[in-house]
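Cross-posting from the chemistry board since nobody answered there.

I work mostly on the small-molecule side, so proteins are not my area. We synthesized zinc ion and want a rough idea of how it might sit in this target. Sequence and SMILES are below. Is it possible to get a predicted 3D structure of the two together?
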Amino acid sequence: MANVCIVCKKEIENGNPIKEDAVIRFIKKMKQKTGTLQNNVLMVCDADLETYRKKRQNFEKMAVLHATAAVIVVAILFLAPLLLGAPFSFVNLFFALVLGIMIAALAILSYTPGLETREWAGAKPTLAGALSPQEGKKRETPQEIAKRLSPRHAPKPAQKPAPKAAPKHAPKPAQKAARKK
Ligand SMILES: [Zn+2]
């Protein structure tokens, strides 16, 4: 196991560990299945902290942007036909939701995982101070927003419509035969 910086991709001795969130776990699981998992510890080296911070902020912006776009598209696709007088349709709703999920999932293209903030607070107070000089608490907000958003942006297996309920009017031969007699 080696420590690898996610920005410069170099092996480093010490850095700021990346938080293992749902997306990272998903990627690791996929790599495990395809046999390409290298089991590196993902980090950000001190030299790349500023670059990393910009990437992370960009991702947070993109996540919000994509989520907003997805909601708008779903609302338009689903509501517009209803407003125009078309009858309610589950198929319409389903495809609107699928498209919305796809738009939201595109935010993954700029995905940048968060840092393990707890380790900063404890073991590396100077680093935390260097990253956010004045706003220790303020920085929590966008991170928490991204945290709330990230599960939704994790690539999900294609959703299938729920299986149709068994027909209620299944013939009951025994009763019918009895009634006929
Ligand atoms: Zn680096």
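Reply from a structural biologist on the board:
Welcome over. Reading the output above for you: The radius of gyration is 24 Å. DSSP finds seven helices and four strands in the chain. Happy to explain the token format if needed.
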